[in-house]
Write a structure and sequence with these properties.
- This protein is an alpha+beta fold.
- Helices cover about 40% and strands about 10% of the residues.
- It is built from 13 helices and nine strands.
- The strands form three sheets. Strands 4-5-3-6 form a four-stranded antiparallel beta sheet, with helices on one face. It has a three-stranded antiparallel beta sheet with strand order 7-8-9.
- It is globular, with a radius of gyration of 24 Å.
Length: about 350
């Protein structure tokens, strides 16, 4: 009889102060080369190694509201991409304040919203063109002042991780780098919140404040601070939610002290289901594509709201019953009869 083996618990990765980072006090190019596992020549030659292209969002027949605009992307390639990934790996291990809710394991848009569940009032603001307005100078200051690198090394680091004098939109490093390059701003916003007895979080360019009372004067002070650091807020996106109002925070809604699904998400789920049932235009998608789309939407709803978990599980069981696809003409076909595949128990709350 084999002895029982006790499975060792996976050790949780610990974070440390920035002074413990391998990037801290990079004193020379040779030291930088060791940190990045490259030669000095490879590092210097990779500066500016970006692929630039325009990204047009895929059309989604079921999207509600504004159609996303095309945007220009600057994506590091080759050796430069490896450098970005290495710096990201090293920075991910550094401790961050509680208000920082993105780009790291254990953070998410959901957790960002959950941090404000107890707030009677909520204010949300959005920084316009955040990556583009985060300059090479701010990135340089991070490497020089926070990581205490000499000026020439901080300059080389900033040249490696910026494109056209700002943070590139297509780098895996950019979200976390945007935080560190703007940490002085976020720290001041957090201090302002504490002074006003409020709770503050940031999710990339989304700023959220919550508490028992928020004034218009506070929003003006926030906008003034953002401007002080070279950014502007998107005034059309600034929102102040009162006591009884549903509070929209980073793609979620807080209502009656609980996290809920936004109405737009409800409508999209319903439209996809109607298309599956042949009661609405399918937007050029096959039946199987619609089934998987609905499964994804319900899965996301279940992630935000436990009331949807049973519904998502039921529909996913239906998806798993699908036997095969005919790829020849792109038309969905099942080898099982429709009655064997369909499960009509997934009734949506408003049906």
């Amino acid at each position: 009889m084999k002895p029982n083996r006790v499975k060792k618990a996976k050790k949780e990765k610990k974070s440390y102060d920035i002074s413990q980072s391998a990037l801290y006090k990079t004193t020379s190019r040779s030291r930088m080369a060791t940190i990045l596992s490259l030669t000095v020549a490879q590092i210097v030659d990779s500066v500016g190694e970006y692929k630039r292209f325009e990204m047009t969002p895929k059309a989604d027949h079921f999207n509600i509201g504004k159609i996303p605009k095309s945007r220009w992307v600057q994506k590091p390639k080759g050796t430069l991409l490896a450098i970005h990934e290495r710096i990201l790996k090293l920075l991910r291990c550094v401790e961050v304040p509680e208000y920082m809710q993105f780009a790291l394991k254990g953070t998410s848009y959901k957790k960002n919203a959950e941090a404000h569940l107890k707030g009677s009032m909520v204010a949300t603001l959005d920084i316009s063109s955040f990556f583009r307005s985060t300059t090479k100078s701010q990135v340089f200051n991070f490497f020089r002042d926070r990581l205490e690198c000499p000026g020439d090394i901080a300059k080389l680091y900033s040249e490696l991780v910026t494109c056209d004098d700002c943070i590139p939109t297509g780098s895996p490093l950019s979200p976390l780098l945007s935080y560190y390059s703007n940490k002085p701003l976020f720290d001041e916003l957090n201090a302002l919140a504490k002074k006003s007895d409020l709770h503050f979080t940031c999710y990339v360019d989304d700023l959220t404040f919550s508490g028992s009372h928020i004034t218009r004067k506070l929003l003006w002070e926030v906008e003034k601070l953002v401007k002080k650091y070279g950014h502007v807020t998107a005034t059309t996106k600034t929102r102040l939610f009162g006591l009884e109002a549903p509070k929209h925070i980073t793609g979620t809604v807080i209502f009656d002290g609980a996290l809920k699904i936004p109405n737009a998400r409800f409508r999209k789920i319903r439209l996809v289901r109607l298309a599956i049932e042949g009661k609405r235009n399918n937007g050029g998608l096959s039946k199987i594509q619609l089934e998987y789309k609905l499964a994804g939407l319900l899965g996301e709803a279940a992630y935000l709201d436990d009331d949807f978990k049973s519904l998502a599980d039921t529909f996913n069981r239906t998806i798993r019953k699908l036997d095969s696809l005919s790829l020849g003409n792109g038309v969905y076909e099942s080898r099982q009869s429709e009655s064997n595949v369909r499960d009509d128990n997934y009734i949506l709350p408003w049906d």
